[in-house]
Amino acid sequence: MALASHSRKQWLERLNRSKRMLWLLGALSFLETLILPVPLELIIIPLMASNRGRIWAMAAVVTAGCLLGSLAGYGIGLALFQSVGTWLIGVLGIEQSYQSFQTLFSQYGFAAIVAIGILPIPYQVALITAGLSGYPLVLFLLAALLSRGVRYFGIAWLVYRFGHKVERMWQRHALVTSLIGGALVLALLLAMQLLASRLL
Fold it and tell me: How confident is the model over 71-103, as pLDDT tens digits?
């Protein structure tokens, strides 16, 4: 455990010194959105804490990488579900999450995509489902931007405010925070949806 922690620390130090750090973070965000099972927070929180002057640039880059990954996942669901989509679901072991999300998505659409981007549920199920159903691309990208923007810029604000303490806070309370945040966002969106339906 200590060896793994030491190796991770050395890897983060090398990444921190790299002139291509922002590009690498964007690429990692893209891959994490599609297939990597490692939470990006384990990488960006310590890097943000060590680069307070670049916190907002880092948040923007990982959000952009996520949007590109989301677009790729949408394309897989839209055009390659029978081959790449089913393979990806099997490789990631998210069959149960994928099946469960279908009901949520059919009922709430936009709000479901936003919520799953914050909740600790594999995000790939939202990407593939939205593409497979032919959900409007603009609305899909807006939902992805809202959910991941809230997540990554929220982390950036916390690191800006509390520094290195955020890594310990995230490791201890990530699940609870994600559940509360996702539930609050979902409730807000559903309330707005209900209000709009009554006004129109």
Answer: 998 998 888 878 787 888 887 777 777 777 777
The one-character DSSP state at 85 is I
The conformation of residue 39, written as its DSSP 8-state character, comes to -
In angstroms, how far is the first alpha carbon of the chain from the final one? 58
pLDDT digits (tens, 9 = 90+) for 106-149: 777 787 787 777 666 678 888 888 888 888 999 889 888 888 88
76's CB contacts (< 8 A; 6+ apart) are 84, 85, 88, 127, 128, 131
Q: How far apart are CA 119 and CA 186, in angstroms?
A: 10
pTM: 0.78
Q: Which tokens belong to 14?
A: 């090398």
Q: Which two three-digit tokens encode residue 130?
A: 């939205």
CB 89 within 8 A of CB 77: no
